[in-house]
Amino acid sequence: MAQVAIPISPAHKAKSAYVHIPFCTVRCGYCDFNTYINDFGPGASRGNYHQSVLREIEMSKRCIEGKFRTVFFGGGTPTLLDAKSLAEILHALPVATDAEVTIEANPETVTAQSLKDLASAGFTRVSVGMQSAVPKVLATLDRQHRPERLPVVAQWVRDAGLDFSVDLIYGTPGETLEDWKTSLEHALSLEPDHMSAYSLIVEPGTKLHAQVARGILPQPDPDEAADKYLLTDQVLSEAGFAWYEISNFARALPGEDHLDASKRRFASRHNLAYWRDWDWWGYGPGAHSHVGDTRWWNVKHPLAYAQRVRDEEIPMHEGEKLSVEDRELERLMLSIRTCEGVQAPMRPELEGLVTENDGRLILTVQGRLMADYVTRVLAGWEG
Ligand SMILES: C[S@@+](CC[C@H](N)C(=O)[O-])C[C@H]1O[C@@H](n2cnc3c(N)ncnc32)[C@H](O)[C@@H]1O
Ligand code: SF4
């Protein structure tokens, strides 16, 4: 990999921005995200990290045309930064007035006041990491909150007037199908607008990976995970939610076309930008950017990042240019995951896995369990 020139062409206006906040109070045993429980001094500590991001934003303004229509503060735990610092970052970005502005939050790191402050600053949506409603599952995942915290946080989110999403994880070792049903029902009782349900991935290098390798915890069973996904689709559909990406479900409003995600009030526009292969600009250590056929990613460690921006240097680590074929394949892999599907002719091996709608192939619920296989067939690698 090499350094690449950042494209400045106005033809590639990034519509979305991602801001990475690389701090957590505890590293959850399953998580391999670029996040740290330590502070690293000036520009790389919770109390002053925002200064580094502000420097990077200033430098990026030489390249950016137009205003961001979606902004996503992800982590790590963005809500470990105080609302004032988060607001400073948001206000430094060129953001459209009707933009969707999301922040990820861990339940134990928000208060009624901090959520109100975020809403006043221009945040429109909170994605709360609930993961499970079952204490033994939360303990296996090393989560810091108790299930009783969620209804309290949900009320604060509503009082602040923010759209409300919850993240859940299924397939944790020791979680039964009944446990997962309990988590889904608890999540629905919070009346969220949006739910993400992720199948637990045992990432190499994590504590969970070591526990599974040593036989302390059982390997998640893919058949059980499939049953849990089918249950998710059934329970959420009955509760008035509709999928718009394999792991993402949005509350459906009367009259909404379920297959047109861009017109769904509660489908995340930021998520859709990723799956549509639109351009986005990433800020913070390890953040990835994607503009036209160019991808690049920043230096990973918060200290190296802080030093680079302090020296007025773009904190890019490496990048690559994608060929036309690579981009076509990427588009296929991303769009087949969405309820809008892909324009492609039907193939006999996809019977039961996709439906045809106006020349587009859209995954059935069985197809969503086998999305990788469907992609390989459409790419001509199977059959
Ligand atoms: C990286 S976290 C950041 C948000 C916040 N710190 C939290 O934990 O809720 C974003 C989401 O990624 C998901 N996630 C992280 N690691 C995962 C893994 N190994 N398998 C499945 N989902 C994972 C979790 O559901 C989490 O809510
Ligand atoms: S899952 Fe969230 S809280 Fe846990 S370590 Fe990862 S980023 Fe931090």
TrEMBL record:
Keywords, ordered alphabetically: 4Fe-4S, Chaperone, Cytoplasm, Heme, Iron, Iron-sulfur, Metal-binding, S-adenosyl-L-methionine
Listed GO MF terms: 4 iron, 4 sulfur cluster binding; coproporphyrinogen oxidase activity; metal ion binding
Keyword Transcription regulation found: no
InterPro entries: Aldolase_TIM, Coproporphyrinogen-III_oxidase, Elp3/MiaA/NifB-like_rSAM, HemW-like, rSAM, rSAM_sf
GO-annotated cellular components: cytoplasm
Chief place of localization: cytoplasm
Location relative to the cell: Cytoplasm
Family per record: Belongs to the anaerobic coproporphyrinogen-III oxidase family. HemW subfamily.
NCBIfam families: hemN_rel (TIGR00539)
Official protein name in the record: Heme chaperone HemW
